[in-house]
Amino acid sequence: MIPGKENLERSGSTQTEKEGAFALFDFEHFLRRVVKNWYWFVLMAMLGYGISWVYSKYYAQRIYASNLSLSISNNTASYFTPNQSINFIWGQNGNQDGIYLKKMLLSRSHNEYLVKQLDLYVNYTTKGLIKQTYLDKYDSPIFLEIDRSHLQQVNYSITLIPRGGDRYEVVLPDEGETTSLYSFVTENFSNVSHYARPANKVISVNEWYVSPNLKFKLVKNPQPSQIKFDNIIFSLSTVNQTVNSLVSTIGVDFDKEINTIMIITKSGFNLNGTVNFLNTSVDELQKKRLIDRNTVDKNTENYLFDNLAKIRKKLDSSATLLNHMKITEGLYDIKDRDEKSLQRIKDLETKKAVIITKINSLNNIKNTLASQNLDRMISMNAAGIEDGSFNATVSELKALYLKRRELALIYTPNSEPMREINRLINEARGNSTGSLKNYYTNYLNELSKIDHQIAGESADLVTYPEKERRYLDVERGYNMIEATYNSLLTKQNETQIRVATNKSDITVIDNAKNLGQGPIAPDVKKTKYTIIGGLLLLPLLILGLSEAMDNRVRNIKELLQATKIPLLGVVGKNTHENNLTVLDQPRSSISEAFRGIRANLRFLHKENDKSKVILVTSSVGGEGKTYVSINIASVLGLSGKKTILLGMDLRKPKIFGDFKIDNKYGISNYLTGEVKMEEIINKTRIDDLDVATSGPIPPNPSELLMSQRNIEFIEELKNHYDFIIIDSPPVGLVADSFELMKYADASIYVVRHEYTEKYMLKMITEKYHKHEVQNLGLVYNDYQSQQGYGYGYGYGYGYGYGYFDEDKNYREPTLIKIRNKLRKLFGNT
């Protein structure tokens, strides 16, 4: 049975739209190409490794990070840190102090203070042959100290080259001078007159370098660095640039288990720089927090001191009056007075004195808010305020006032930003005033209630004589003033104790340290794998694109599934010098392949006594149509069958060259009536094989091939030969072969491995399945397997067994060797 034909018979009718449809991508062939081009992948991997090594060593700028952890106590009681105002939940617990501190750490004012305090606007680097490395200030042997009152050029490289001792040569860029210079006082740019490039100059430590665009001096590092540098490069940045870049490198997070523990992270190009910044930042924050905590208590202490002085005068005056009445009136004691009622009146008047004190404190707070000088704010406890939202409002007001002062330096009073900040201030002030009104209302209600109770308790005093009643009034006044004085004195003592024992509510758990931490970025390993992977993908992509764009037939199984045309046989690559492989190399594997095709031909045509006409064609020239025709005719002639080979490709004659026959007269001459049949038939060295060449190329080959004379010619040959092999024109170029197929008993369609385009097979496939072409079979030509001479479809002839002539030069592939050894080892033969 012809390979592939049984599938066709089993399937019955097929869907024509699927016939001739090949896969868009041959993954199996793609893998083979990848394996075949393994050296490109090795080369790309080596190149990628080299590039990544150079990048890592000379170009990758390491980024380091250090962290500091601190604890925040929750006993802050000042308006600077709102306790309950911010609706923030972390782990279901409030952490308002932490959020406030986070805002402070990331605030512009705090970081601007650090920038100016630490001179962070001065950048330190050093440059080798290739790479420029960032330095920490304290890694440098010298510091750069600028004159802030002098205009300076920012983003301008200043290179210092050691010249021995404490002397350095100042080398400036060859170009880049600008007339727009920066003032570190006003933090604005100013334009100056044009000036020439400042000359390079050698200066000593503590000597000022002065030029139109720079003024600085070098200060020796008190702790000399052990590292020797060939050069130190300085550059200045504006305060705004430095603050913005600084804030972007700070991260603040909270411990997931204890939300009062804050973890602050700083990243940068130098590890020591990040450590110094974090420790300094938190140290300054601790100082500021302590100052903030003491500010309110100091204000409260001063407020209480002033009020105590005033109350003391009233108390002294009241005591004098009381003593006068005792002396002049002789009233040291009143007989039969109601001590219980008087004690209740005394307690009520003491409460009244406390409320009046709170109201006075409220008045002070209200006046302070109205004055916008919040640094004079007293403690909220003095006014009995326990509302965290009010504290937050006051804190917000202070921040808004500071913001308005900053904006006033940039914008006009009627600009949109100023109007917006004023709106926010009025809104915050309204919120604070509303809270104070609530306290006023509550205190006045309490005061009215106490006065009413006192009036009720005083009703019995009207029964006393006039003199005794006046004495009791004076005594009650003295007791009330005394109660107020004692209340203020108690508050003063509490405040003084708090000032004496106050400490920052920030406790550092772990300071930032240089522990030799490795860089956090770039990820050198990931970069290496990315570079290597990207370069490995390059040949893979090229092979994939070429595979997708390559539409040639290279898979026998796919060919049969797409065309559903029976396969007569597979012919290997011809390495012989001419097309007479069967005649010159009868023991070759290719000759055996043609014998197999000869055996399979009987399945295409009916067995009868008449001669068999076999037409050989292909899609285009170069696919081996003539080669297949010659060798099929040869194996038929050698088998004892009387055979003639007709060269009917009149447009491109070929056969005569291989058989060394004169092509002066041929089929074209016979069809035009110039010669007789006997004159164009040539004998070969095979007794049973004759050849009729095509002859000279005629002007009308199609008309000659389709002529009645040609049909009669073929019919006449049937009377003399068992097989008539027709080497016809390619069907992809002309339609001659389709007409000749009508008179053929069987047709062979030659497909060349990795040459025939897939789309070329669509026409012959459609005609075959529409039954326009009968008894058609495929020959797969020029196939060279990577696994020996087997064709991957169950019929091959196998190299390496001493059967064919080619076996003497055959070298078994490594994979086949391994496979065979494994089979032998496990007894699988």
From TrEMBL:
Task: Identify the keywords attached in UniProt to this record, alphabetized.
Answer: ATP-binding, Kinase, Membrane, Nucleotide-binding, Transferase, Transmembrane, Transmembrane helix, Tyrosine-protein kinase
Q: Name one Pfam family in it.
A: AAA_31
**Reaction(s) this enzyme catalyzes, per UniProt:** L-tyrosyl-[protein] + ATP = O-phospho-L-tyrosyl-[protein] + ADP + H(+)
EC nos: 2.7.10.2
- Which sequence ranges are marked TM in the entry? 38-56
Which of the seven top EC classes does this enzyme belong to? transferase
GO cellular component terms given for this protein: plasma membrane
Q: Does the keyword Nucleotide-binding apply?
A: yes
Q: Which residues form the AAA domain?
A: 612-755
- Answer yes or no on keyword Protease: no
Molecular functions per Gene Ontology: ATP binding; identical protein binding; non-membrane spanning protein tyrosine kinase activity
The entry's family comment says: Belongs to the etk/wzc family.
Entry protein name: non-specific protein-tyrosine kinase
Tell me the organism: Kaistella jeonii
